[in-house]
């Protein structure tokens, strides 16, 4: 017996297509906001784009005169990025180098980077701090690390961790500090620097920003849940109506079939001595019976399709409810309680 080996392969991130609205205008707007923020925070001429995917960030930076090394584990992603780069003007092509490589094992030599980008990378790692420490070692003295990760629950088979505000703040370690935090709906961004004069700490202002970002996510979840409830109610009413219609049609067809069967049997008895007119009547009755049976099959299929659609909606509703319940019991919910305790102690007596 031959045993098959199944490999779960990570699908290519379609960030270039999302940036260009190929995956929808609303999603494209969100992706552009995040990518444009990353590009606006890049400092210095030498950039390392880790997990560059289809290459959009690297190419955008090269258009602005940055020297960019883009690396990714997926050869398909690098191939796509190179094809996109071939469409650029010669000055841009000269500034970008894409390579299928591993960030940890890549031979950087003495090369240092002014900015290192981890765009939606850390959530795929079991030990994200190892990546940050390695990045710090190849960072120039005044360099920075730009990180973006999904904010809150974002179910994906290759995600190793969920990031809330506290999880991002905990990535700061030793002389590597966070100097800026940015919320993008379902994403959160952070800038890390070595030994900065000023850095981010958890205070009431930052907590308010996190609460506002989380409120938007919660509000969207509630709206989606209400929309699904309305759609389910409409669907259930439609199914009830169809059930009544089908029952009436089945009764009507049962009577029609009985009548047609009786007529056919009668006509068959006189077939041998039948006239042309009798044969036509027999043929017409037979065709009518066939059409009735076809109609019944079509209605049964419509009912089956309706039930399948209802089952799909119910599964989607349960999945959304699970996410919503998880969000309400998440670290950010617990963190919000701590925030109000912090606020109470901060303003006590004032």
Q: Could you walk me through the main structural features you see in this protein, from its secondary elements to its overall organization?
A:
The chain is an alpha/beta fold and 350 residues long. The protein folds into two domains: 15-201, Vaccinia Virus protein VP39 (Rossmann fold), CATH 3.40.50; 223-333. The chain is 56% helix and 15% strand. It is built from ten helices and seven strands. Strands 3-2-1-4-5-7-6 form a seven-stranded mixed beta sheet, sandwiched between helices. Helix 8 (204-269) runs antiparallel to helix 9 (276-328).
Walk me through the topology:
Layout: H1 15-19, H2 25-40, E1 46-50, H3 56-63, E2 67-72, H4 75-86, H5 90-93, E3 96-100, E4 113-119, H6 128-137, E5 139-150, H7 165-169, E6 176-184, E7 187-194, H8 204-269, H9 276-328, H10 331-346
Parallel strand pairs: 1-2, 1-4, 2-3, 4-5
Antiparallel strand pairs: 5-7, 6-7
Helix pairs in contact: 8-9, 8-10
Shape: elongated
- State the order of secondary-structure elements, H for helix, E for strand: HHEHEHHEEHEHEEHHH
- What is the CATH topology classification name of the largest domain? Rossmann fold
CATH superfamily membership of the largest domain: Vaccinia Virus protein VP39
Tell me the total number of β-strands.
7
Strands in their spatial order, largest beta sheet: 3-2-1-4-5-7-6
Largest sheet: 7 strands, mixed
The portion of residues assigned to helices is 55-70%
> What structural category arises from helix and sheet content?
alpha/beta
> Number of domains in the coordinates?
2
Mean pLDDT: 80
């Amino acid at each position: 017996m031959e045993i098959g080996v199944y490999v779960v392969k990570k699908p290519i991130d379609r960030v270039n297509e999302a940036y260009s609205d190929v995956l929808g205008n609303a999603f494209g707007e969100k992706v552009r906001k995040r990518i444009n923020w990353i590009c606006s925070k890049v400092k210095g001429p030498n950039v390392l784009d880790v997990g560059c995917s289809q290459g959009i960030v690297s190419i955008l930076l090269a258009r602005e005169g940055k020297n960019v090394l883009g690396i990714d584990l997926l050869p398909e992603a690098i191939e796509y990025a190179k094809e996109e780069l071939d469409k650029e003007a010669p000055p841009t092509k000269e500034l970008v180098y894409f390579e299928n490589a591993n960030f940890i094992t890549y031979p950087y030599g003495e090369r240092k980077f002014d900015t290192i980008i981890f765009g939606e990378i850390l959530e795929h790692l079991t030990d994200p701090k190892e990546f940050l420490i390695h990045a710090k070692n190849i960072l120039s003295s005044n360099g920075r690390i730009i990180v973006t990760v999904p904010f809150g629950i974002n179910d994906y088979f290759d995600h190793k961790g969920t990031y809330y505000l506290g999880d991002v703040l905990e990535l700061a370690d030793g002389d590597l500090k966070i100097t800026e935090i940015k919320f993008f709906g379902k994403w959160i961004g952070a800038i890390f620097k070595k030994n900065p004069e000023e850095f981010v700490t958890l205070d009431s202002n930052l907590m308010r920003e996190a609460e506002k970002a989380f409120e938007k996510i919660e509000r969207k979840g509630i709206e989606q849940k209400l929309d699904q409830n309305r759609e389910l109610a409409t669907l259930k009413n439609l199914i009830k109506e169809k059930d009544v219609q089908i029952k009436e049609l089945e009764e009507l067809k049962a009577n029609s079939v009985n009548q047609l069967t009786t007529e056919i049997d009668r006509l068959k008895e006189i077939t041998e001595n039948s006239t042309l007119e009798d044969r036509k009547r027999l043929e017409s009755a037979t065709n009518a019976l066939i059409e009735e049976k076809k109609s019944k099959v079509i209605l049964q299929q419509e009912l089956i399709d309706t039930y399948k659609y209802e089952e799909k909606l119910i599964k989607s509703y349960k999945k959304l409810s699970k996410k919503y319940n998880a969000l309400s019991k998440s670290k950010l919910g617990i963190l919000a309680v701590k925030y109000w305790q912090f606020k109470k102690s901060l303003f006590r007596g004032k």
